[in-house]
Structure formats: structure tokens, C-alpha cells
Amino acid sequence: MNCSATLKKTSCILLLLVSTLLGENYYVSKSYGNNNNDGKSVSSPFKTIAKAASVMTAGDVCYIREGSYHESITINNKDGSQGSPIVFTRYNNERVILDGTLPIDTSWTVHSGNIYKKKLSFTPWQLFVGGLEQVMARWPNAKFSDESIWDNDNHWAKGTIDDDENAYSNGTMIDDPYTNDQGESINLSSQGFDLDQTNKEAIAILNTGSFRTWSRKVTSHSGGTFNYATTPGWKTKHHYYYLEGRLEFLDSAGEWFFDTADSMLYLWPENNANPKDLDIRGKVQSYAFNITASEYIHIKNLEFFATTVYFYNGDNSLIYGCNFMYPSCSKRMLRVVDTQPELTLFTSSSTDNIIRKSAFRNTDGSVIEMWGGDNMIDSCYFNNIDYSVADNSSIMLTIRMNGSDNTFSHNTIHKTGASATVKVGNSGLVEYNNLYDTGHLQSDGSMIPIYRG
């Protein structure tokens, strides 16, 4: 018997098995990569993450080199396995940003006063100057910079329903003028607005259901009264609202407006700056990763700016060590109403997924929904979540985990708009969390709503 030959054969088989188990390493570089490369070394990387995703199989790791990547990465019917996930991560602790925005160049013209305008070839629904979100033109005014955006007692208008519960019915709002703590008169009839101009109707964000808030187009308007399509869960108390969707609301520095009729963007920069001197970007993407019917996909140590991730029927996946800034925003600026904002989402029976040691900051809308069961959110940080609280699902939660046996553990949440914060479904576990400063823009809720079966 030739023991040497037998040992060599056995060694080769073992090496092949180990190689198969470990998978392949792929590399991506925006600055010097090329999708015609094989992507298997730092010296010959792919240019795009999407290219790497298209060739990866169980056990493969995609190492992404530093840079800002504006990509849509689609993964469909692709499975890793336990011990051999498909992994997307940064290379050697370099900073990698998945960016959902496009730059807006410097060729602006003056519209009026300090307001500038520019025609665009794309349709942004969120605007950033120097990396900071600008306020969608609104009445009454509010800002992110001084946190007045979270103060409905002073920066939303009010209905007269608390004075007379029979003053009006669902589908009508009668304004109740008041003077806020800053000495500003909040009085709709004195503004001279034309809220129901055909095809340019104002959009009302209406907190008419305590823990439910809806967006509606104004259908008719006279003085301090306007009408709109009725809202579910309408109550005869605590009516707050503000208005968006018209250029005439752009009357303050830090506000912007996009006219969908002619693709014209309007901006009043802070400090009356000239926009040609500013870094201005517009959100045009909801999801950087769009993952369908796939298992064991790991996304680790990446940053997301004005974009996020979507899993449809995806199990055993992981988001770890990621930083999400402005992950989701409604499309009201594009005149989309009564529609839930596209958010960080695991849907269609996505089970056994984990979001761990990640941060989510600055959303318009709920921050996360997980549908399926046996899902976990652990050791995460959430701040400035949902400044309009409009058109969310169910009881309009900050975080919604549907199904059974979910876990929400060791997380911090503060500064939220919704009156209900976290729901974990049936037989769920909520432990060791720090929740505070919640429910700024609604009423009649709780941080952890529990339902009796």
C-alpha cells in the first residue's frame, strides 16, 4: 500500500473541503476598481459592490475599500449557510458609505430675495446642505437646528375641537389661532394662503387620532377652514396639524421646495449663503441593499447615508456595527400622501434575523419593521426618530416587530415623535433598554404597548 499517495489524496480532499467552507474573498474599490477584474485581490478589485454581489456564493466575503458608493445592490435567491454566510464589510477599518443621494451642482439663479432656484433632471424627496437635512417648506415654521421640529405645542397649528367637540367633523379642520411661546401668531386665516389651487393643493399633516397622524391633500379652503379626505381613527380631541406642499410656505432660511410640475428646486440657504458655495445633495434612493428570498446575508461595519436596507422573505441574516444616518423619509415633497415611508424593513415572514450594535438617526417615519418572528434587535442606538409621524402602520410605532418570540434588548431610544415606541409581537422579550424623551408629536400611547391575547 502506498501510504504517501493515500495521504496526499486525503490532504487534497481536506484542502478542497476547507477551501469550499471558507469561500472566496472579493474586493471592491470605487477609486481604482474595474468590473472586468476578477475581484479576488486588493490589486484587482471590482468597481461596484453590485458586481461582487452578483458572483458571491456561500462563505464569500466582500471587502469594500473606502469611499462613498451610490449603488442599488440586488440580491435574489442567494443563500449563505450557517457558518458560511455571504458577508459585505469594509476593508481594514476603512470608511465606507452607502449614499442614497445625488449631488446638485452650482448653477443656481435667484428666484426672489434669498431664495434660489435650479431645474433638476431627477426628483429628490429629501435635501441636504453640508450633510444636514433641510426643512421641507412648511407652515407653521419649525427647524431641526433648534429642535423646534419636535414641538407641536408651539410649531404646529391647532384645531378648535378641544373647545367644542362638535365644531366640525372628520374631513374638516377649523383653525384655532394662538400665539406661541416665541410670540409668533399661528393663525391660518391671516396668512392669505391659497391651499386648494388645482394640482398644487397644500398637503396637511394631521394628528387627528391621538396616536395616529395622516397626510392628506387639501380639497377646499376658505379663511381658517379647510377640507380633506377623511382619516381613520378620527377623535374629538387634541387636533394638531401643519402644512406642506406649496412654494408660498418657503419663507425661512433652511427651507426648501421641489415643484414636481416643472422639476424646479427652490432653496433658502442658512445664513443667506449662496448655494454655489455649498455642498447640496438630494435623496433619490430608498434602499442600497434590496434582498429577496435569501438567507445568511451579513452586512457589517458599513455606513448608510439617506438610504437603508430591505429584506423580503429573508432569514438568518445580520446587520452588525452599521451606522444609518437619515435612513428613511416620506415622499410628501413629491406629492405622495397617505403612504407609509419606505423604511428599514424585514418583511414577508423574515425570521431569525438580528440587528446588533448599529445606530439609526434622523428619520421621517418609523425606523424599523420586522415581520416574521424570532427576530432580534440588540445593543442598538436610536435618536431623532420620526418628526412627522404620518402614515405609519398599525398604531404608528417607532419600532414594530411582528410575529412571535422576538427580542428587543440592551437598546437606547430617545427623541421620538410617536406616542408608542416598541412593539415586539406575541411572546416577545423586552429587557435592559433605555427609553426616554419619546412621544413628542402624538398623545395617548406608551413606550412598550402590550396587548392581551
Report on this model:
This protein is mostly beta strands and 453 residues long. Helix content is 7%, strand content 38%. The chain is built from three helices and 41 strands. Strands 1-2-5-25-28-31-34-37-40 form a nine-stranded parallel sheet, covered by helices on one side.
**CATH fold type of the largest domain:** Pectate Lyase C-like
Strand arrangement, largest sheet?
A: 1-2-5-25-28-31-34-37-40
Task: Please describe the biggest sheet, giving its number of strands, its sense, and whether it closes into a barrel.
Answer: 9 strands, parallel
Please work out how many helical segments DSSP would assign: 3
What proportion strand? 35-45%
Shape: globular
Q: What is the name of the CATH superfamily of the largest domain?
A: Single-stranded right-handed beta-helix, Pectin lyase-like
Radius of gyration: 25 Å
- Mean pLDDT comes to 95
Number of domains: 2
Say how many strands there are: 41
**What distance separates the N and C termini?**
70 Å
Helix coverage percent: under 10%
Give the second-level CATH assignment, the architecture of the largest domain: 3 Solenoid
Structural class: mainly beta
- Can you identify the CATH class of the largest domain? Mainly Beta
